[in-house]
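User: Just a sanity check before I run the rest of the batch. Below are the structure tokens for the first item. I only need the designed sequence back.
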């Protein structure tokens, strides 16, 4: 075997699923609790307002957004644990996660977090929370664009290129993306080919 064939990224060691789940929960509580609860509360945004007589409807929608956003975040953590990794960059999975919510949108944790913040803005009737949500989106989009996407492209190469072409970063698909061997040429494609039933 030539040295050229050996020039591939070193495999990332797999974490045990219980440990991966524990780290994911701790990371989610620390960051989500700080930026999704503690900071908005400290800034004085958690005070109920009724900007209009019909605002009860908006509050119901806000509650739905909060529940949906939390569900997307938890679902994402489950998929990371199933892949023997966490959302923490230093403990990421050894393979590209494209199942679950990642089949609909590339950044379901960010999208879920923004849904929670938007839901809070409706629930409390807070303009400040809307502005906070907009700033959070800008920070998250910058992190994705300038750090996470280049890191994923270096690590997963052709698989991530195919995934990025098929799934939007922020707008969910109506149906989940189903990768196949014709679109994936890296480890995901080879794994899919091994699992295809013989005809």
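Assistant: Here's the designed sequence for the first item:
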């Amino acid at each position: 075997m030539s040295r050229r064939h050996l020039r591939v990224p070193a495999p990332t060691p797999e974490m045990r699923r219980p440990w991966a789940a524990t780290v994911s929960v701790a990371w989610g509580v620390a960051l989500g609790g700080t930026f999704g609860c503690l900071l908005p509360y400290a800034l004085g945004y958690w005070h109920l307002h009724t900007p209009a007589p019909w605002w009860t409807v908006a509050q119901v929608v806000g509650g739905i957004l909060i529940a949906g956003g939390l569900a997307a975040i938890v679902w994402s953590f489950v998929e990371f644990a199933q892949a023997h990794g966490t959302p923490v960059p230093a403990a990421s999975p050894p393979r590209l996660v494209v199942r679950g919510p990642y089949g609909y949108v590339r950044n379901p944790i960010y999208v879920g977090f923004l849904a929670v913040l938007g839901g809070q803005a409706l629930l409390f009737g807070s303009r400040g929370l809307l502005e906070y949500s907009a700033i959070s989106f800008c920070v998250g989009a910058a992190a994705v664009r300038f750090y996470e996407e280049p890191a994923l492209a270096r690590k997963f190469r052709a698989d991530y290129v195919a995934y990025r072409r098929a799934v939007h970063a922020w707008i969910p698909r109506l149906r989940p993306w189903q990768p196949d061997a014709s679109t994936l040429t890296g480890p995901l494609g080879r794994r899919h080919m091994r699992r295809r039933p013989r005809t």
